[in-house]
Amino acid sequence: MEDAVSLRPSFCTWADGSPMHFFAVFDGHGGPHVSALCREQMHVILAEELAAAAREGEEVVDEERAWRAALSRSFSRVDALAAVACACGRAAPDRPDEKARIEAAGGRVVYLNGPRVRGILAMSRALGDRYLKPEVICEPDITITERTVDDECLILASDGMWDVISNETACDVARQCLEDGRPSSAGRAAAGSGEAASSSTGAPAAAVGQESEPRCYRAAALLARLALGRESSDNISVVVIDLQGRG
């Protein structure tokens, strides 16, 4: 297992006093060194960067800009820490804009069992791959989605799941699990994995909450088992966050 899962409810407080939650799946391509570092340090560093933004008044002036800047600085700091770690791996830099950026930096994309930077790494943005700089960068590709009261859940997973399960199927499975049971008063999150280990490595983990096996745990575990049943060839880590607090 090379993935790492981080579940950090209320990891920091926003300017208006509301708690902020951090949930992540880190795909440790080529080894657990950098993914484990991300699991232990990313939320800590992000909290420091958000606090710095608060002191400078950034988060009050423009919340989205503050988040983007804090995330970018956090990724850069973790990448610097990962300089002594070893990581190589696989995924897919199949976006034309990323290919153009790599070539503009003097690199090239070689198609060897899929597109790979210099014929080595099948992704164009990663942490810790210092030997592939400047083509491979640590700058995160950030999207911001505003939640609505109708949002049911959030599914985070490594490509070991997404390679064999569509968005629609994943949502259907999670929805069925989350709708089966009693309502509760607090949101929960749980992680599941295709291998038996501890929660720190992305395995079936104790959920955030009081129940030993809440519905979000069952959803994550079922998605992981489904990916295994479909013969996924990669590490499988799944996090399901119940946005409706159903237990």
UniProtKB/TrEMBL annotation:
EC number: 3.1.3.16
Keywords: Hydrolase, Magnesium, Manganese, Metal-binding, Protein phosphatase
Protein name (record): protein-serine/threonine phosphatase
Highest taxon of source: Eukaryota
Keyword set includes Metal-binding: yes
GO molecular function: metal ion binding; protein serine/threonine phosphatase activity
Keyword Nucleotide-binding in annotation: no
Source organism: Oryza brachyantha
Lineage per the UniProt record: Eukaryota, Viridiplantae, Streptophyta, Embryophyta, Tracheophyta
